[in-house]
Sequence to fold (214 residues):
Amino acid sequence: MNITATDETSGINTCEYTIDSAGYFLLTKSGDTYSALPSIYNGPHTVSFRCTDNAGRQATLSSIILFTVDTAAPTISAINSPTAYANYSSSSVSLSITASDGTGSGINVCQYSDNGGAYVSLSGTGPYTATPAFSEGFHILSFRCTDNAGLNSAISSVSFRVDTAAPTISAINSPTAYANYSSSSVSLSITASDGTGSGINVCQYSDNGELMFL
Fold:
């Protein structure tokens, strides 16, 4: 902290400061500039200054200045959504995180990055949210928050998959269409895939309207 002060008559004797009205401390003189570099704990504070000339006259107390010391980065306490390793059937996936900056300067912005791409801002003041559209496939989201002092939180990550495309049956290998079988046991076989989706969970067949599992 520093101030500029002058006294055209007898000259300035001392300049002092007080933080949170906890007593006055001398500032160091360098020309017309008076400065100090005190150690101040995290949180909101007030500071005011006064100067005394060599005739003992004291300047009017300066305006009280409000400021905040913030040496601690914000923290992300929870990724509320998406659920880790979940499969989503819609490309629009809700994102939500909970974060705070304790007694610091307050969170300025929270952001997310998809698969290492550019960071995009979330909205809100807690929880911080967005509902972007994602491409088909696997995604790794990275979240970070920055406070008003420019400090970044640690990165928090979550992975999930978007699968909007249904699986496809590419071939019925057996039975052969319109074939006649002399045995009651008939082999059934199909070829199916889910591409880049979440993977096939189950394949089934229906015999005369009765659904059965393969």
